[in-house]
Amino acid sequence: MHEHDREAVGQPFDHALMQRARELSWQALQGIRERMRPGINEDEARAEASQVFEALGLERLWHPVIIRIGPNTTKTYREASQPGVRLGENDSYFIDLGLVFSGHEGDVGDTFVVGHAPEREACAQAARDLFQDVAKKWRHEGWDGQKLYNYAFERAEAMGWRFNHAIKGHRVSDFPHSVHKGGNLGDLDHTPRKGLWILEIQIAHPSEPFGAFYEDLLADPAP
User: Fold this and answer.
1) In what residue span(s) does the Peptidase M24 domain sit (predicted)?
2) From CA 131, how far away is CA 57, in angstroms rounded?
3) Rounded distance, CA 16 to CA 168, Å?
4) Dihedral (CA of 38, 28, 183, 156) sign
């Protein structure tokens, strides 16, 4: 596959609509966050998320809603959650959304803490900081996907967190991006084109059963 084929898009593709999908996806994530409270489990949180989506005019999901609580925050996208986990009084969770608005894909994720859990808060912030650090290398240095993820691993280790190598970012575009090729951002050997790639960061505490996740579009910084 030629590298430029990995960034192919459909005729309906529009950068403004991609940005709008991104913005609405972040609004949806914040709407779900507002409904999270101690005692809720992942199934209940996903059920309440549907109400948030309806209010925002969601067209469809392009990947299942992922909400991970407590020890499940160390699990990757394809791993099943440990059943029966409910959000504790001093706990953490993350939300990962793949939503379609106006025929374009949004994909966002972030980690949050309830109560008093300083180590979990530090982990959540570290994932955000690491994302911003890596994204700056893309914006200002033009690094390819491979170099970006090698750097992410090195920085995570230096910060004292365990980096999840199974998470390597991916394509988005007009729906469905799967017909336009794609693959992992972490395997890309040229500078990723703006507005087409999701940078994913997942880290975990080196010994405790919790982690953090953050993802967003490689594009201009959010306002």
Assistant:
1) 17-186
2) 28
3) 25
4) negative
Residues 6+ apart with CB under 8 A from 40: 69, 86, 87
The confidence band for 2, taking pLDDT boundaries of 50, 70 and 90, is very low
Please check whether residue 66 is in contact with residue 76, taking contact to mean a CB–CB distance below 8 angstroms.
no
Tell me the domains of the chain and their CATH numbers. Answer: 3-217 (3.90.230.10)
SS (H, E, C) 71-136: HHHHCCCCCCCCCCCECCCCEEEEEEEEEEECCEEEEEEEEEEECCCHHHHHHHHHHHHHHHHHHH
- Report the chain's terminal Cα–Cα distance, integer Å: 36
Q: What's the pLDDT tens digit per position in 170-217?
A: 999 999 988 877 789 999 999 999 999 999 999 999 999 999 999 999
What six digits make up the tokens of 184?
Answer: 């992992």
Q: What is the pTM of this model?
A: 0.95
CA angle 22, 24, 25 (to 5 degrees): 65
Q: Which residues pair with 93 in a beta bridge?
A: 69, 112
Task: Report pLDDT digits (tens) over 69-107.
Answer: 999 999 988 899 999 999 999 999 999 999 999 999 999
As beta bridge partners, residue 41 has: 86
Q: What is the dihedral of CA 127, 129, 130, 133, to 10 degrees?
A: 160
Task: For residues 109-126, give the mean pLDDT.
Answer: 98
Nearest to 169 by CA among 109, 131, 215: 215
